[in-house]
Amino acid sequence: MKKSWIVFTTLSLILFIFFLNPVQAQKKTTIAVLPFYVYSAENIEYVKQGIWDMLISRLSANEGVTVTAKEQVTEAMQLLKVKDMTIANVYAVGKKLNVDYVVWGSITKIGNSISIDGKLLDVAQYSSPVGILSQTQGMDEVIGKVNELAKKINEYLAGARDTTPGLQIPVAAPPTSPPVPKGEAVKGDKLVSTMRHGKRATLTGTINPDFITGAMPRDKKSFWMSQKYPTEFRGMDIGDVNGDGLNEIVTIDRNNIYIFQKIGQEMRLLQKIAGKSTDNYLGVDVFPLTGEKAQDIIVSNIFTSRGPNMFQHQVQSFVVSYRDGKWQRTADNLPWIFRAINNSGTPRLLGQKLSVSATSPASGFGPFDTPIYEMVWRGGKVAEGRKLKIPQGLSIYGLTIDNLGEGKDKIIALNKFDHILVLEETDRSLSKIESLFGGKEVLYRSEDVFGGSNLYLSMYGQEDLGDDFTEFNYYLNPRIITYDISKTGKREVFIAKNDAPSGRILKNVKFFTSTEFYCLLWDSIGLEENWRTKKLSGYAADYQIKDVDNDGEDEIVIALVTSSASLVSQNSVIVAYKLRASE
Questions:
Q1: In angstroms, rounded to a whole number, what is the distance separating the alpha carbons of residues 514 and 361?
Q2: Can you say whether the dihedral through the CA atoms of 480, 483, 485, 486 is positive or negative?
């Protein structure tokens, strides 16, 4: 009897203490904060460290939370050899540290645009119940977004503890193939609302959503950005230019060629080929011109001399080929400017001479009032092949040829006002086709403007009214690509639209600072918008859809100038997005 009374008294005392102070009976929540992964051409290590410290400080202020020390987190990541911030790696760190939750994320900085993607991983549930995806302009807004993430996490943790005071709820172990976290699925659901499209249903099921939304990439394996280069890239192409069976990235600035290769996350410079101080490179193309194992680098170059009321342009293009273990010029002082296109899967090289009798836009005779030829390699020299049925007045920059999935080949080009034209093949001049009464050759003309370039040729000519001579700039548009992006068997038109703070009102002043990309689908009547991206911070100087990382799959690769608004110094990066959505 006495023994029973002692047991009863002891149990009563334990229960009394428990209900008197339930907070003390409740176990503290343990949480680890991982350093955010950084995607930037600039060194912003201080931002990474600042965000790490801020989150630890904000979460440590919560009395119900114990935050793991930075040293323990770093040690665990080193032991597990964590390189990529995948959810599987984050989960492994959480298990190693034996914590309830893990905070993780990434920072992407392109120009002044900074994206923050932060998440909370529930280790036991293998889910991400809290997250923040935010894009800011400038560093000043970053602190507010970090505070917002910490507040959301604290509110969630407080709610979780309140709903289950002192109770241990059994949870299932994570599956062998981890499901996509709930926070990730929400962003996928929001994809449709971020796309703007035309009347038809969009065909975006296989497209990488990180590129369409233009926000912080969800899967870092689908996005890559090079380090920053202190120059303005003017052109870029991709191909095997040294015969090693792997693709290289070839870029140009005003008078230099850079040959890179993407190795892992690094863009390694293989060779810089310096030109003359008087060179003015307009474009670069990688093309199998000479028929050798290594593809050739074709640079469109111009020398300009200026006199009273005149500009004299002398085209001095050249070909660089890999011979005897080094890159060397195999053709020089060529009088054409060049552009390589992929005509329904068949590569073609176009060439065009500049008109020496160009006067002014009002006269209709500009520098591109010349025929366009398909170029060939004949007798060890670059030569004109057949003359193409392309209206004189169109530039090979901002032009391609494709049947767009039906009938005969069509000319897809940007006119001098940056509107897209879809034309039948014809020998008639552009001025006659676009006259007041038009022409049957015009199948379509866009209402919106596209393209846009900071590159131009200057000419002197007479104004529309009067006899005064003035300077006119003829802008060289970026390339137009046709590609079966949606895997429907029908090639779409892929084109950039660069935007300037001042719009396109000023004829002779254009400095583009942001860009968005459009995928347009031909429906036998016109081009309809299939999808477009959000704006990217920076000016798209050039772009390609080719295999940049030698994995056998094509990527969307962009040469992005991140400081075009500055007339003093400019910087460039190469950005790549996986073409297909991750499965």
A1: 27
A2: positive
Q: Where are the beta strands (DSSP E) in 335-450?
A: 337-343, 346-352, 372-378, 381-387, 399-402, 410-414, 419-424, 442-449
Residue 22 lies inside a defined structural domain of this protein: no
Dmax over CA atoms of the chain, in Å, equals 123
Amino acid 80 reads: L
pLDDT tens digits, 371-383: 999 999 999 999 9
CA nearest 103: which of 141, 169, 156? 156
d(C-alpha 463, C-alpha 467), whole Å? 7
Domain membership of residue 119 as a residue range? 29-158
Domain count, the chain: 2
Choosing from 158, 184, 205, the residue where a domain stops is: 158
Q: Are residues 395 and 253 in the same domain?
A: yes
**Tell me, what amino acid is at 536?**
L
Q: Is residue 310 part of a domain?
A: yes
Spatial separation of the C-alpha atoms in residues 238 and 287, rounded to whole Å: 9
Domain for residue 222, yes or no? no
Token output for 571 = 């910087």
User: Mean of the pLDDT values across residues 205-224?
Assistant: 56
Could you tell me the CATH number of the domain that includes residue 54? Answer: 3.40.50.10610
Tell me the H-state helices in 41-181. Answer: 45-60, 70-79, 87-97, 142-163
pTM: 0.67
How far is 300 from 281, CA to CA, in rounded Å?
6
